[in-house]
Amino acid sequence: MADIASPSTETNTDVAFIGVYKPFAECEAASRTKLAAKNLNLFYSGKQALHGINIDIAAKQVTALIGPSGCGKSSFIRCFNRMNDLIDGCKVDGEVVLDGTDIYSPDQDVVALRSRVGMVFQKPNPFPKSIFDNVAYGPRILGMAHSKSEMDEIVKTSLTSAGLYDEVKSRLDAPGLSLSGGQQQRLCIARAIAVRPEVLLMDEPCSALDPIATSKIEALIQELREDYTIVIVTHSMQQARRVSDQTAYFHLGRLVEHGETGRIFDCPEDERLRDYVMGRIG
Amino acid sequence: MLKAFELIPRALFERVVVFVLICASTVAVLITVGIFLSLIFETILFFQKVPIVDFLFGLHWSPQTAIREDQVGAAGAFGALPLLVGTFLISAVALTVSGPIGLMAAIYLSEYAGKGFRDFIKPALEVLAGIPTVVYGFFAALVVAPLLRDSGAAFGVSISSESALAAGLVMGIMTIPFVSSISDDAITAVPNSLREGALALGSTKSEAVRKVILRAALPGITGGMLLAASRVIGETMIVVMAAGLTANLTINPFEAVTTVTVQIVTLLTGDQEFDSAKTLAAFALGLLLFLITLLINVTALAIVKRYRERYE
Amino acid sequence: MIDHSIVQERVRVRLRQRHLAENRFKVYGIFSIGLAVVFIAVLFATIVNTGSSAFKQTKILLQVDLGGDQFGGNIPPKEKDIEAANFHLLTKRAIYKAFPTVMSRGGKRQLYRLLSSGAPFQLKNIVKESPDVVGKTIKVWVTASDDVDMVIKGKVPRDAGPDLRRLTNQQMGWLRELEKAGALTTKFNTTLFLSGDSREPELAGIGGALVGSFLSILVCIALALPIGVLSAVYLEEFAPKNRYTDLIEVNINNLAAVPSIVFGLLGLAIFLNMFDLPRSAPLVGGMVLSLMTLPTIIIASRASIKAVPPSIREAATALGASRVQVAFHHVVPLARPGIMSGTVIGVAQALGETAPLLMIGMVAFVVDIPGGILDAATALPVQVFLWSDIPERAFSERTAAAIVILLAFTMLMNLTAVILRRKFETSW
After folding, report:
1. Does residue B43 sit within a domain?
2. What is the domain count for chain B?
3. Which of A74, A165, A192, C81 could join A160 in a cystine, given CB atoms 3.0 to 4.6 angstroms apart?
4. In a domain? residue A60
C-alpha cells in the first residue's frame, strides 16, 4: 500500500524508469488496455471513498465516467496521475496500472508519470503568463526543444490540435487570462498536449462553460481521440453519449457497470444505473 | 455602567455614544497630523538657518552649533547625503541577508514542510520576531562586530569594529521572520488551481514554485520586501549600538558609517537649547525619515493592491 | 517536424538534472531555516552565557563592632544618632580587624578596596532597620567590590596578573584567606532586582527601570486600550462607508509602519515642549508608547469584532437592542479574548521600545526608584542601552542579565497572548 502522505515519493530516475513517453507513430490497437485499476481502494483520512475498483481503460478511446455527484469519479480519475498524492491524509490501496506497470510502486517517478498522463481541470486554470508561455511551459521544463524555432513549432502544433491557433495566432503574447472561458479551456488542453502525453484525463472540462464552448470542446475530444487515450468525467449523460466510446458508471464509490456507451445507455443492466439513466437519481 | 444612564433619553444617549466613538477614531488621524505638524514646523525653522539644498545634497555632515551670537551659522555642515547613503548601505546588507533566507524559509514551510515541522518552526521564528531591538543591538556590538573585525584581520582584511556589515547583518537577522511571514502569506494566497495545473504537467515542486507560484506571488512578496526595507531604514537601536557616529560617504560595508536615525539620537541626547540648529536638524532628519518610509509603505501597498486586482 | 525519438532522449536526459535541481532546492530551504534557528540559538546562548553570572553577587562577611560611642552613647540610638554615625569608619575597622597583620596605610587602603563603596550604606540600613543591634558586635554580609566579584565568579581568571585583574597579588591572598574562613561567598543578587542604577556595578540594579517600565506601560494601556477599542467598535459597527472612514483606516495602517523614533520626536516637540510636561517621566513615556500601541490594539480589536458572527447581532437587534447596546452588551464581550490578546501583544512590543523613550529624555542616570508617574524614571530597555555603553566587564554581565529579564517578560506576554487566543477560541 503506497502511503501518499509520506513526503517523498519521487525516486531515483535510473531504476525502474518506465520511459518518458512513447512516440505517436506507434499505432496502438483499439482493444489494447492502456490503463487499469485493480482492487483500488481510496481513503481520505480514514474515510473510504472508493471501494474495490476494477476497470480496464482501452487505448485510443474515450472512456466516460458518469454517476451522481460525490460518488468518487474525480477522486478516481486523479489516481491515474497521482494527483491524489497532493492531498493530506489520502491513502491508496491496490494497483493502478499504466501499460502494465503499477504506477503506485515505490520506485515510480511521479514527475515522469505526469508528463505521460496529462490532465485538464474543471475550471480553466491558465497560468498568469502569455498564451505562448502557457503552452510552452511544459515543453520548456521537459527540455523538449533546443531552439526557438523548435519551440515555436511545438506551440503552434499544440494550439492547432486544440483548435485554438487560428483565433490567437496574431496575439500569442497576450495574457492567457485575457481569453474567454471556452478559449481558456482550449488553451489548457493545448498546454496539456504540448508535452505529448499518452493519456489525457479530463475532469468535467465543460461544466464551467457555455453550450457553444462546450460543443467546440466535445468536437475537439473527438479529434484528439486519434492520438490520445482519453478518460473524461462528466455529470452530463448526454455528453457521455455524444463523446465517449466506453462508459463506466460509479455509484457511492463503487464501479457498478462498465461497457460500450451505446449499450450502457440503451440496455443498462444494473438497477442503480437504470435509475440514473432514467433520471430517478442524480 | 451603561445602566446608570438609563434615565437619559435613548436617542440622545445613542448620539452621544456614537460621537464619543467618532472622537476616539479621529485620534489616529490626529496623531498623523501631529507628527506632520511637529516635524514640519521645526524643519521650517531649520531651513531658515541652513539652506535646504545644503541639507539634501551636501556631502559633509558635521553638525556644530554657533557658540556665540556673532558666529556665522556656517559653523557646522549639515549635508545629509552621507547619512542617507549610510542608511541605504546598511539596509542593503540587511535585505541581502533577510530576503533570500526569509523567502526560502517561507517556500520550504509552505510547499514542502510537513505539519509537525511547520508547527515547530513557525513559533520559533515568531520568537525571533518578538525580541526587542535593543537586544539585537547588544548582540551586534558584543558578539558580531568583534567577530567580524577579528575574522577580517585573520584574512588580512580591515573591517571596522563599527562596520556597516555588522549592523546590517544583525538587522537582517531581525527581519527574517517578517519577510518569511509575508512571503508565506503571499505564497499561500496563490490559488491551488495554479499549483495543481503546474504539477499535473509533470513539473517538479521546485519548477512549479519557481516558474508559476513565485511569479503569481511576486506582488505580495515585493510588497513584503519593501515593508521590510522601510522597517530597516527606520530602525534605531541596532545602529546606535553597533554602527558609527561619524559621517562617512562610502559604499564599502567594511567601513563604519552612520545613519539618519543614529544622528537623530545623537543630536537630541545631551543638553542643548531647543531652538539650536542641532536640535532642529534632528527634526529635519525626522521629517526626511518619515517621508521616505511613508513613500515606501504607500508604494508597497499600491503594488500589492494593483496586482491582486489583475490576477483575480 | 521534430524527430520524436530525439525529443524523447532530450527529455530523459533532462529528467535527471531536474531531480537533482529539486533536491538542491529542498536543501536551500532547509538550510535557510537552519540558519535562522542557529541565529536564534547563538543569540540566546551568548546572552544567557554572559548574563547568568550576574544573578549572583560576591559578598564578604564582616564582624562589625557597633560600639555605642559612635552613636552618641544612646542605646537604642535615636534617628539623628544613626545619621551622624560614621559607618565608613565602622566598616573600615571591621575589615582591618579581620586582617590584623596589615599595618601600612597602603595595605589598609587595599583591604578596604575589597569592599564595595556601598558597604557602609548597607551597614547603615541594617542599623536603621533594627536599631537594637547598636552596642553589640554583629556579623554582616556586605557586597564585595566589582573587581573582586569578577575574579571570584571566574569572569577574570585568577592568574591573570594584577593589571587585568585590578587586584594585587596581596589582595588575592587576602581573598583566599577569607574564602578559607568561610567569609567570602556568592549569594543571589537581590541588588540587581531591587536597586536603582548606580555608577558602581555591584550596586546597580534594574529596580528603578522595572518600576519605570511598569508605570509607563500602565499609562500606555490606560490611554491606548479605551481609545483603541472604541475606535475599533466605531469602525466595525457604526462607520458608514465614506471617504472619512477610509481616511481613518489609511491612517491607522500607516501609523503601524511609522518608525518608532518619529513618535519620540512627536513626544519631544508636543508633550515636552508644547505642553511642558516633565522630561523623563513615565507619564510622557506612557503617552508616547500609547501612540505606538494604538494601531496594534485597533487592528487586533477590529479582527476580533469582525469574527463575531452576524447572527449574534441580528438576534440582539431582533430583541429590540439599540446599536450601542448590541455593540457593547453583545459584540464586545464576545470579542474580548481577541482584544485582550492584541493588547498583550501591544504591551509586549511597548515593553521593548527604546528609541522613542530616548527622545523624551528617559535616558538620564536615575538612581532613585520612581514613586509616581511624574517622577524622573528610566525604562528596562533604556537601562539595557545605558549599561551596554559602559566598558566595565561587570556592567556587561549585568546588561546581559537585564536582557534575560526583559526577554523573559516579553516571551511570557507573547505566550499569554497565544494562550488567551487559543483558550477562548470558540468555534462559531
Report:
1. no
2. 1
3. A165
4. yes
Option in B114, B197, B211 nearest A7 (CB)? B114
Test C1 with A14 for CB contact under 8 angstroms: no
> Residue A112's domain spans which residues?
28-127+199-278
Shortest distance between the Cα of C179 and any Cα of chain B, in A, equals 32
Please indicate, yes or no, if residue B181 is contained in any of the structural domains. yes
C251 touches chain B (CB under 8 A): yes
* A161 located within any domain: no
Q: From B143, B104, B145, B139, select the one nearest B125 (Cα to Cα).
A: B104
Instruction: Measure the CA–CA gap between A249 and A154, rounded to whole angstroms.
Output: 36
Q: Are the beta carbons of A95 and A102 closer than 8 angstroms?
A: yes
Tell me, yes or no, whether B16 lies in a domain.
no
Residues A176, A184 contacting (CB under 8 angstroms): yes
CA B229 from centroid of its chain's CA atoms: 5
pLDDT 10s per residue in chain C (428 long)? Answer: 567 778 888 888 899 999 999 999 999 999 999 999 999 999 999 999 999 999 999 999 988 888 767 777 766 777 787 888 888 888 888 888 888 888 888 888 888 888 999 899 988 888 888 888 887 888 889 999 988 998 888 888 888 788 888 888 888 888 888 888 888 888 899 888 988 888 888 888 999 999 999 999 999 999 999 999 999 999 988 888 888 888 888 889 889 889 999 999 999 999 988 888 888 899 999 999 999 999 999 999 999 999 888 998 999 999 988 888 888 888 999 888 889 999 999 999 999 999 999 998 888 788 888 888 888 899 999 999 999 988 888 899 999 999 999 999 999 998 888 888 777 666 54
Q: Assign A93 to helix, strand or coil.
A: strand
B223 min Cα distance to partner chain A (Å):
19
A12 lies in some domain:
no
* Lookup result for grid cell 535527471: C16
Q: The pTM is what?
A: 0.86
What is the ipTM score, two decimals? Answer: 0.89
Check: CB of residue A161 under 8 Å from CB of residue A223: yes
Q: How far apart are CA B246 and CA B234, in angstroms?
A: 19
CA dihedral over A259, A260, A263, A264, signed as positive or negative: positive
Give backbone dihedrals phi and psi of A95, rounded to 5 degrees, phi first: -120, 140
Residue B289 near residue C262, CB atoms below 8 Å: yes
Chain B residues closer than 8 Å to C294 by CB? 27-28, 31
* Strands A33-44, A90-98: pairing kind: antiparallel
Residue at C249: amino acid letter: E
Task: For residue A24, give the chain C residue with the closest CA.
Answer: C4
| A185 within domain boundaries | no
Structural domain including B125 reads 78-311
B295 touches chain C (CB under 8 A): no
Number of domains in chain A: 1
- CA A143 – CA C406 distance, rounded (Å): 56
Where residue B298 sits, what CATH number does that domain have? 1.10.3720.10
Would you tell me how many other CB atoms lie within 10 Å of the CB of residue B20? 13
Chains contacting C (3 or more CB pairs within 8 Å): A, B
Q: Where are the beta strands (DSSP E) in C69-220?
A: 137-143, 184-188
The half-sphere exposure of A16 on its side-chain side, counting CA atoms within 13 A, is: 15
Note whether residue B28 is domain-resident. Answer: no
